[in-house]
Amino acid sequence: MGAGHAHRLYRQGHSPVHRLPPHTKLAAVFAFVVVVVSTPREAMWAFGLYAVLLAAVARAARVPAGFLLKRLLIEVPFVAFAVLMPFVAQGERVEVLGLSLSVHGLWGAWNVLAKGTLGVAASVLLAATTELRALLLGLQRLRLPPLLVQIASFMIRYGDVITDEMRRMRIARQSRGFEARGVRHWGVLAKSAGALFIRSYERGERVHLAMVSRGYAGSMPVIDEVTASRAQWSYALALPLAALAVCLLGWML
């Protein structure tokens, strides 16, 4: 998989959660999200307990609340969609602060907000405690199709290359006194985008030829074999199992 790549969501640490094998964390987060989505929206107390479980994981991983809340801003578009649902949905209406809102829309908005926020929070905690390279190894260990793992690996690494190329082109434009201030400068930006595409395509061709010359035949060698003990699996699955118990109570009560 090559060298590791740090990303902005990752928070360096040595907590018990950081030390868990990546495939156990991937399986735990996936199972947790499935359980949350399966919970009836009327069981509001259950979502509060899910939030408490995630807070316990964040504490064990030593991830500050501010770090987590800042990353949750990624769901703002979904929040905007949820806010509109009570106004546009059909069915029974109810008056709230002088506004006529749909009952079905209110439940739908709550459903999207609660389940979406919990899912995003779980994903942020996964990213905050697992490096990108480890995530790829975890996907490989979980028997994800090798071609998909390779595509994800190349995308991550090539994304860094393109970002660096964009930075150099921006510095080159600024060194020549260029500063985009209006529509008349869009032509220069369009030409820069075209040049970036050509350079990226040519670089991709060179990388592919270099890989083929070194024996690449459609599969990457497995450098690290990630394993997990029974105790590590038990530790990782504690979150989805506790969530499952809450979900079952939500359906029965």
Automatic annotation (TrEMBL):
<feature type="transmembrane region" description="Helical">
    <location>
        <begin position="72"/>
        <end position="89"/>
    </location>
</feature>
<keyword id="KW-0812">Transmembrane</keyword>
<feature type="transmembrane region" description="Helical">
    <location>
        <begin position="233"/>
        <end position="252"/>
    </location>
</feature>
<dbReference type="InterPro" id="IPR012809">
    <property type="entry name" value="ECF_CbiQ"/>
</dbReference>
<dbReference type="Pfam" id="PF02361">
    <property type="entry name" value="CbiQ"/>
</dbReference>
<dbReference type="InterPro" id="IPR003339">
    <property type="entry name" value="ABC/ECF_trnsptr_transmembrane"/>
</dbReference>
<protein>
    <submittedName>
        <fullName>Cobalt ABC transporter permease</fullName>
    </submittedName>
</protein>
<feature type="transmembrane region" description="Helical">
    <location>
        <begin position="109"/>
        <end position="130"/>
    </location>
</feature>
<keyword id="KW-0472">Membrane</keyword>
<dbReference type="InterPro" id="IPR051611">
    <property type="entry name" value="ECF_transporter_component"/>
</dbReference>
<keyword id="KW-1133">Transmembrane helix</keyword>
<feature type="transmembrane region" description="Helical">
    <location>
        <begin position="43"/>
        <end position="60"/>
    </location>
</feature>
<keyword id="KW-1003">Cell membrane</keyword>
